[in-house]
Description:
By secondary structure, the protein is α/β, with parallel strands linked by helices. It has twelve helices and eight strands.
Amino acid sequence: MTNKIAFLGCGSMNEAIMAGLLASGVPARDIVATVRRASRASELAERHGVTVIATGEEEAANLEAVRGAAVVVLGVKPVGIADLAASLAPVLSPSAVVVSVAAAVSIAQLERALPDGQPVVRSMPNTPARVGRGVIAVSGGTHASDEDVKRTVDLFSAVGVVVEVPEEQIDAVSAVSGSGPAYAFYLTEAMAAAGESLGLDRELSLVLARETVVGAGLMLAEPGADPAQLRRGVTSPNGTTERAIAVFDERGLPGIIADGAAAATARAREITRELG
């Protein structure tokens, strides 16, 4: 069986996955990618040593990339993914696993666009995959075998932790881990702004907030780490941290986060409906 992996569209997410595979030992000769602009193609080829074809220069770039591929990773925007999938039919191997990293595009939508019986795996990665600390959820489609799903899990394991979930949970996963890095960055912004409001220099506040969130994340990455236990370890009875946490609880911060995640889930479902 061929080992070729085709990345159609190579934005930050697909590039992160590709870089992780290369770092894990996948030979550059086994990877081909497509992008729109020739300048971006040159940049990626020079940075990673893989074959990159510009669709703006070569009309059949996607077909050329997919021909003979064992895995095809679709990384274009959701609005164009069904048309792209349909265009691959003439060259797509019947055994090739088509993996989508596009948010809100359902397995059924992809399966309708692809040849009958094509194995499909839907995934939901997040941006920390760029530094090898991603969380990637995967769901196998109607025609995806256990081996097809395992191949996808092995592929994504190069850039983080992989979890297999039923497709009906993908939108909820997206609300927690897909959007989650933005929540952490938002919290960091808020902490830095709080430091400024207390009279600290802006740059100092940013350093304090950023490095604190990074350090806390590393503690959470330790085996068996429990966020509630770690929080209690910093929260001395009747101390300063306890007073801050009390204000967060009083203002309903946990509920605000839950409401935000629910809104993200609802929007994902809206997009799926909009895509038909």
